[in-house]
Amino acid sequence: MRIILILVAVICLIVLVTQGLRHIFESKSSLWRTVLNKLGGAFLIIGGIGLLGSGLSSVGGMNWLPNSFEWPLSGTHSALRFSSGEYAVSHTAVDRIQIYNEKMQFINGWQIDAQGGEFYLLPSQQASLYAFTVKGSKKFEYDLLGNLISSSTYEDPLTVGNDSREEIQFKVNPLLWPFSGPFAGWTICLVGALFLAVPGIRKTR
């Protein structure tokens, strides 16, 4: 099933990128139509990558990413602070855990098998953390380098989340915001679609 979801996401991404490129290289009868067409195509590509890239990541299609890769993140409701000053942050939109220092500078990150659902972080008694997934009721223990220490299941999902997690907002580079999650990607796609629709609406009048 996961392979099918990955293939569907990849095909949709190829279609969006192809359509976007077609509009970028297409010339219209007037300058303003051409500009809107190119902008619409560019926004469609950027938004599609942000939207479907997040979807690919949530179904395991981005597990090849290195731990040195930082996925753009605008904020989280699930951040753990360790005595060392480091933060462990859950990026639930892309099934990823990311570690930051006390100055909120990225250190490393890794994928987690949350099956595209929510997951919660809890501290352990050592320099590690627990990740509880809602789907599948899985319990993972990782060290702060992303190495998996243990994997099991838990029985009572209602008790998960009753902890001292913090809410954190990040300053995201505006150029990277479209890739921060599916909502951002969808928003950019919608703007692109509006750019492409305007010439057609004006032409019918």
CATH topology of the largest domain: Thrombin, subunit H
Largest sheet: 5 strands, antiparallel
Cα distance spanning the termini:
47 Å
CATH class of the largest domain: Mainly Beta
Q: Tell me the overall shape.
A: elongated
Quick overview:
The protein is an alpha+beta fold and 205 residues long. The protein has three helices and nine strands, in the order ααβββββββββα.
Verbal overview:
The N and C termini lie far apart (47 Å). Helix content is 36%, strand content 24%. It has two domains: 2-61 and 182-204; 75-171, Beta Barrel (Thrombin, subunit H), CATH 2.40.10. By secondary structure, the chain is α+β, with helices and mostly antiparallel strands. The mean pLDDT is 88.
Topology:
Blueprint: H1 2-24, H2 31-58, E1 75-81, E2 87-91, E3 96-100, E4 106-111, E5 119-123, E6 128-133, E7 138-143, E8 148-153, E9 166-169, H3 182-204
Antiparallel strand pairs: 1-2, 1-9, 2-3, 3-4, 5-6, 6-7, 7-8
Helix pairs in contact: 1-2, 2-3
Main attributes?
Thrombin, subunit H; four-stranded antiparallel beta sheet; five-stranded antiparallel beta sheet; single chain; alpha+beta; 205 residues; elongated; 3 helices
